Amino acid sequence: HGKNIPLDKTYSILEQGKGWSMVLETGQHARSAMFSDGIRAFVAASKRPDKAWTYTVGKMSQFISGFDIPEILEALNFAERRKRDVAVLNGDVWGGGNTIGGSPRVSGSVLTPSEVSAIIRETIGEND
Length: 128
Hints:
128 residues, alpha+beta, single chain, 3 helices
Protein backbone atom coordinates (compact mmCIF):
# COMPACT_ATOMS: atom_id res chain seq x y z
CA HIS A 1 0.00 0.00 0.00
CA GLY A 2 3.03 2.27 -0.28
CA LYS A 3 3.00 5.37 -2.42
CA ASN A 4 5.61 7.34 -4.26
CA ILE A 5 6.14 10.87 -3.04
CA PRO A 6 7.97 13.28 -5.34
CA LEU A 7 11.11 14.81 -3.90
CA ASP A 8 11.14 18.58 -3.45
CA LYS A 9 14.36 19.46 -5.25
CA THR A 10 13.74 23.17 -5.78
CA TYR A 11 16.41 25.80 -5.43
CA SER A 12 17.20 29.22 -6.88
CA ILE A 13 20.57 30.44 -8.07
CA LEU A 14 21.34 33.80 -6.48
CA GLU A 15 24.75 34.21 -8.10
CA GLN A 16 27.23 32.19 -10.11
CA GLY A 17 30.99 32.24 -10.02
CA LYS A 18 33.61 30.24 -11.87
CA GLY A 19 32.82 26.68 -10.84
CA TRP A 20 30.51 27.55 -7.92
CA SER A 21 27.04 28.93 -7.26
CA MET A 22 25.31 30.77 -4.42
CA VAL A 23 21.87 29.27 -3.98
CA LEU A 24 18.71 29.54 -1.98
CA GLU A 25 17.59 26.01 -1.12
CA THR A 26 13.81 25.81 -0.92
CA GLY A 27 13.29 22.06 -1.27
CA GLN A 28 14.44 19.42 1.20
CA HIS A 29 16.40 17.65 -1.53
CA ALA A 30 17.77 20.70 -3.33
CA ARG A 31 21.39 19.54 -3.13
CA SER A 32 20.57 16.38 -5.07
CA ALA A 33 19.13 18.54 -7.84
CA MET A 34 22.07 20.95 -7.68
CA PHE A 35 24.59 18.14 -8.13
CA SER A 36 22.44 16.64 -10.90
CA ASP A 37 22.42 20.07 -12.60
CA GLY A 38 26.22 20.20 -12.55
CA ILE A 39 26.79 22.41 -9.51
CA ARG A 40 29.85 20.90 -7.82
CA ALA A 41 30.66 23.72 -5.34
CA PHE A 42 28.10 25.93 -3.65
CA VAL A 43 27.15 28.41 -0.97
CA ALA A 44 23.62 27.96 0.37
CA ALA A 45 22.22 31.11 1.97
CA SER A 46 19.16 31.50 4.18
CA LYS A 47 17.83 34.46 6.15
CA ARG A 48 17.12 33.86 9.83
CA PRO A 49 14.23 35.38 11.80
CA ASP A 50 16.76 37.40 13.84
CA LYS A 51 17.95 39.12 10.59
CA ALA A 52 21.27 37.22 10.60
CA TRP A 53 22.19 34.80 7.81
CA THR A 54 22.99 31.10 7.84
CA TYR A 55 25.39 29.85 5.17
CA THR A 56 26.61 26.43 4.17
CA VAL A 57 29.74 26.28 2.02
CA GLY A 58 30.27 22.94 0.32
CA LYS A 59 31.56 20.94 -2.59
CA MET A 60 30.75 17.52 -3.93
CA SER A 61 34.22 16.07 -3.37
CA GLN A 62 37.60 16.97 -1.95
CA PHE A 63 38.88 16.60 -5.50
CA ILE A 64 36.98 19.67 -6.74
CA SER A 65 39.81 22.14 -7.26
CA GLY A 66 39.72 25.91 -7.07
CA PHE A 67 37.24 26.05 -4.17
CA ASP A 68 39.36 25.66 -1.03
CA ILE A 69 36.80 25.56 1.76
CA PRO A 70 39.20 25.90 4.73
CA GLU A 71 40.76 28.97 3.07
CA ILE A 72 37.31 30.41 2.31
CA LEU A 73 36.17 29.84 5.91
CA GLU A 74 39.29 31.56 7.24
CA ALA A 75 38.61 34.61 5.04
CA LEU A 76 34.95 34.70 6.11
CA ASN A 77 35.94 34.51 9.80
CA PHE A 78 38.29 37.44 9.32
CA ALA A 79 35.53 39.48 7.63
CA GLU A 80 33.00 38.48 10.30
CA ARG A 81 35.28 39.71 13.10
CA ARG A 82 35.94 42.99 11.27
CA LYS A 83 32.26 43.67 10.59
CA ARG A 84 31.30 42.86 14.18
CA ASP A 85 34.31 44.87 15.37
CA VAL A 86 35.49 42.13 17.76
CA ALA A 87 38.79 40.33 18.02
CA VAL A 88 37.31 36.97 19.10
CA LEU A 89 33.89 35.44 18.52
CA ASN A 90 34.10 33.07 21.53
CA GLY A 91 34.07 29.90 19.47
CA ASP A 92 30.92 30.83 17.51
CA VAL A 93 32.77 31.06 14.22
CA TRP A 94 32.75 29.90 10.63
CA GLY A 95 34.00 26.33 10.63
CA GLY A 96 33.96 22.93 9.02
CA GLY A 97 36.17 20.62 7.01
CA ASN A 98 37.56 20.37 3.52
CA THR A 99 34.24 19.52 1.81
CA ILE A 100 31.64 21.37 3.90
CA GLY A 101 31.46 24.15 6.45
CA GLY A 102 29.33 27.05 7.46
CA SER A 103 28.58 30.20 9.34
CA PRO A 104 28.48 30.53 13.14
CA ARG A 105 25.76 28.20 14.44
CA VAL A 106 24.48 30.23 17.36
CA SER A 107 24.62 33.83 16.16
CA GLY A 108 24.62 33.29 12.41
CA SER A 109 26.50 35.68 10.18
CA VAL A 110 26.21 39.44 9.86
CA LEU A 111 27.69 39.21 6.34
CA THR A 112 25.23 39.71 3.47
CA PRO A 113 25.16 37.31 0.52
CA SER A 114 26.86 39.92 -1.68
CA GLU A 115 29.63 40.34 0.91
CA VAL A 116 30.10 36.57 1.19
CA SER A 117 30.23 36.28 -2.59
CA ALA A 118 32.81 39.07 -2.88
CA ILE A 119 34.99 37.47 -0.19
CA ILE A 120 34.83 34.08 -1.91
CA ARG A 121 35.67 35.61 -5.30
CA GLU A 122 38.68 37.36 -3.81
CA THR A 123 39.82 34.28 -1.88
CA ILE A 124 39.68 31.91 -4.85
CA GLY A 125 41.28 34.46 -7.17
CA GLU A 126 38.24 35.12 -9.34
CA ASN A 127 38.92 38.86 -9.36
CA ASP A 128 42.38 38.41 -10.84
